[in-house]
UniProtKB/TrEMBL annotation:
Gene3D superfamilies: HUPs. This is Universal stress protein UspA-related nucleotide-binding protein. It comes from the Archaea. Belongs to the universal stress protein A family. It comes from Pyrobaculum oguniense (strain DSM 13380 / JCM 10595 / TE7).
Amino acid sequence: MYRRILVAYDGSDHAKKAVVHAAALAKAFGSSVCVITVAVDPSQASLDKAQKIASEAAEALKSQGVALEEVAVRSGTPATEILNYAEEKGVDLIVMGSRGLSALQRLVLGSVSQAVASRARVPVLIVR
Ligand code: ATP
Ligand code: MG
């Protein structure tokens, strides 16, 4: 059913859970998985940090025996970059956490998951 799954990973606890779900689905459906981490700005320091975060998810997926297709690091507005990358790769499922790294816990959904869920053309699995 899902040939290619995208996990949006920011290193948060919810994103870690999203990786677990993506791995389970990939194994069940024989899907390949792409990872994206969006850096807050295009500075080398931010990109290096994002690369390190993305690698964490990649390692977790590989250790689960998942077919890792690509690990992408971009900079820009996270939701926009996630949606553009999803289109580019032609993924058929996006998996992400309900919350991220922000300390503000007043909202049920973070702004990135909210925006991706509203605008994506493919199903979005939001992991709590
Ligand atoms: P907000 O950022 O709106 O203050 P938040 O940080 O709690 O709130 P989100 O940023 O929406 O919540 O995070 C929800 C999920 O979106 C994360 O678990 C992760 O899957 C994804 N995500 C958020 N930021 C990024 C990012 N920079 N790169 C990749 N994925 C991200
Ligand atoms: Mg956030």
